[in-house]
Amino acid sequence: MEGQLKIERREVLKEKPDFSRLGFGQYFTDHMLIIDYKEGKGWHDARIVPYAPITLDPAAMVFHYGQTVFEGLKAFKTTDNRVLLFRPEKNFARLNRSNDRLTIPQIDEEQVLEALKALISLEKDWIPTEPGTSLYIRPFIIATEPCLGVRASHEYKLMVILSPVGAYYAEGLEPVHINVESKYVRAVRGGTGAAKTAGNYASSIKAQVEAKESGYSQVLWLDGIEQRYIEEVGSMNVFFKIDGQVLTPELNGSILDGVTRDSIITLLKEWGIPVVERKLSIEELHEAYQNGTFEEAFGTGTAAVISPIGELNWLNHKMIINDGKIGELSQKLYDTITGIQTGKLADPFHWVVEVN
Amino acid sequence: MEGQLKIERREVLKEKPDFSRLGFGQYFTDHMLIIDYKEGKGWHDARIVPYAPITLDPAAMVFHYGQTVFEGLKAFKTTDNRVLLFRPEKNFARLNRSNDRLTIPQIDEEQVLEALKALISLEKDWIPTEPGTSLYIRPFIIATEPCLGVRASHEYKLMVILSPVGAYYAEGLEPVHINVESKYVRAVRGGTGAAKTAGNYASSIKAQVEAKESGYSQVLWLDGIEQRYIEEVGSMNVFFKIDGQVLTPELNGSILDGVTRDSIITLLKEWGIPVVERKLSIEELHEAYQNGTFEEAFGTGTAAVISPIGELNWLNHKMIINDGKIGELSQKLYDTITGIQTGKLADPFHWVVEVN
C-alpha cells in the first residue's frame, strides 16, 4: 500500500446514541477508513474521512455480480480505559482468504490493521462499556468498476465502518429456538460457504424469514449434498455437548472458520474438556437427545459470542435442550471470552491487542 | 406503484461511442430509471433522470449481505426504425421470482415495463443497428437500508440502466473452448441458482479465471450434489445435439430458467426437431463423443444469444465438437432468433413488443 494514512476529521461530531439501547449495527461513528484499489496501481490512498454516503456508478460491479467480502470484529474498553481488540490478525487473514475465493486482490494485513487502529483511536469515545456492549468493526471490500461483463473487477474500495452495539440477539443470552432447515441450503463444497461474502447471507434470508413465521429465531443449516450433516446455525458456528464431550462440525470448505469457534476449541482443550471436530449428522443429535446424553448446544460468532440453543425442531421432532436453559459450559465460555475481551480476565493466549 | 413517472432530461447529451467498437456493458446512455421502495410506503417515486452516480450509505445492506437481483434483455432497431423488445414480460416475471427467493418485495411487472418503454423511447438514438449489436437493458434492485443486522432490508432501489453493446464474447460466433469444472460448484438445490442474483456470479469468477489460465474461455458447470450432471455453461444455459436429438438440462431449481432457452425449445418443437429437457451426465456426453453421435453444443443467453462450443475438456478427455466449427442447427437458431428480434423475420410466436 503506497503512501501515508491521511486523516480528515469531521468538524462537528455527531450526537451519540443512548448506549443502553443500541441494538446491533444501527448507529455509526463519526469517521470511516477508505482504501482504494486500481489494477496497475494496487491499494492506494488510505484515508480516514468523516462517515458519509459513498458515490458509485450504477454499473459498479458489486451491484450486479456481488464481488464483495467482509469481516466483523469488536473493540472493547477496559475499566482503566485501555482499548482492546480481540485476535484482529485472524480477521484480516480470513479477509485475505475470502479475497482469494472471490478473486479480489490481497490486502497488506498488517498495514490495514495499523490503519484500523488509527481509526479506533480517533473514535474511542464511541466504545460503549455497559456489559454485553462493544464497538463493532466492519471491514468490507466492494468491486467498484462500472462494467456489465461478468469477470473480476479492476477497481475496488476497502472500507471500515464502526458501530457501537448492544447484544446481537434481542434475547441476549436467553436460549433461542432453532428450526433444522430441510429445504434451503446455505452452501456446498466447491462454493463460497467458507468465505465471508455477501451471497452466503443473501441466500440465507428466506430460510430465516420462514423460520420466524413458524416461531423460531433462526435455522440450523445442514450440508448441501446429503442435507444430513450439521454445518452452521444462522450466521454462526455451532457446538454441541453430548455425554461430556463437545462436538462441532469440522472445517469442510463450506462452513466459516470462525474466530470465536477457534477460541472456544482452544479454551476447551486448556480446560481438559474433550472437544472433537468432525462430521455430525442430525440423526446422531436426535439419537443423543432420545437417550438423554444431549447436554448443551450453542452458536458462536463475533456478534453474539455465545448464543445458547434451548430448542431444536427437526421435522416435528422437538428437542428441548437442558430444560431450555443456558448450560453451565455455555455460560462459562461466554464469561471467559467476554472477560478476556474486556480485560477483566487474564489473557493466557495473548489474544487481545491493545490500541494505543 | 403510486404516482406518475417523472422525467428529468439531461441538459447536454453525452457524445456517443463508436458503435462499431462497443464491447459489452462499457458505455451507458444519457438517462436511467429509478424507483424507490420503503416498507409501509411500497414502490414509489418512479423517475427517469440523467445517468449519474448514486449515493448510498456505506452500511447499505447490498454491500454486506448481497440482497440484490437483476435482469438482462435487449432493445433492437428495425430497418424501418421501429424499436423492438424481445419477450420483456418474461424478464419481469423472472425478476419477481428472483425477488421472492431473495425476499425482496414484488414489483408491478406491467408498470415497470411501461416505465422501461418510456426510458427506451427517450434513448432510442442509442440503439446501434450494426449486425450483432443492440441496446442491452439492465434492470436491477439493491437493498439500501443502512443496517448491519442480517435480515431483509426495509428499503430498496430498482434501477434500469442501458448500454449499447456489440457481441458479448470477443470471439462472436466463433466456437469457444470450455473446461468442465470439477472443483468449483455454481449452485445446489435449495440455494439461489435459479435466481438472477449477484452471489451466483460472484462465486463463478474464480472458476472462470482458472479456466482462462488453462486456455479455456469458460467453464461447464456440473451439479452441486454429485458433480456429475450438467447445469450451465458460464452464465448461460446449454444445449447438446446428440444423434439428431437436442438435449438440455431440465429446470431443477439450481439452473436459470432462461428466456433464450425457452425460445429455442419452442423453435425446435415448431421445426419438428426432437428436444428433451432432462438430467444429463458428463459421462453420457463423453460416451456420445466416443461413439461419434455428439453433433453440436452451444450455450444460450440474452447477452450472446447462441455461443457455439467447439471443444469441451473433461479431466483431460478432449472432445472436439463438429470439427470445432459452428453447427448447422446452432447457426440456424442464431439467425432465426436474431432475425425475429430485429424484425427481419416474421414473429409467429408474438415474441417482440414494439416501443412506441
TrEMBL record, chains A, B:
Cofactor: pyridoxal 5'-phosphate
Keyword field: Amino-acid biosynthesis, Aminotransferase, Branched-chain amino acid biosynthesis, Pyridoxal phosphate, Transferase
SUPFAM superfamilies: D-aminoacid aminotransferase-like PLP-dependent enzymes (SSF56752)
Recorded family membership: Belongs to the class-IV pyridoxal-phosphate-dependent aminotransferase family.
Pfam families: Aminotran_4
Catalytic reaction equation(s): L-valine + 2-oxoglutarate = 3-methyl-2-oxobutanoate + L-glutamate; L-isoleucine + 2-oxoglutarate = (S)-3-methyl-2-oxopentanoate + L-glutamate; L-leucine + 2-oxoglutarate = 4-methyl-2-oxopentanoate + L-glutamate
Protein name (record): Branched-chain-amino-acid aminotransferase
Species per Swiss-Prot/TrEMBL record: Paenibacillus sediminis
Enzyme Commission identifier(s): 2.6.1.42
Keyword Disulfide bond carried by entry: no
Domain of life: Bacteria
Gene Ontology MF: a single term: branched-chain-amino-acid transaminase activity
Pathway in which this enzyme or protein is active: Amino-acid biosynthesis; L-leucine biosynthesis; L-leucine from 3-methyl-2-oxobutanoate: step 4/4; Amino-acid biosynthesis; L-valine biosynthesis; L-valine from pyruvate: step 4/4; Amino-acid biosynthesis; L-isoleucine biosynthesis; L-isoleucine from 2-oxobutanoate: step 4/4
Enzyme class: transferase
Cross-referenced InterPro entries: Aminotrans_IV, Aminotrans_IV_CS, Aminotransferase-like, B_amino_transII, BCAT-like_C, BCAT-like_N, BCAT_family
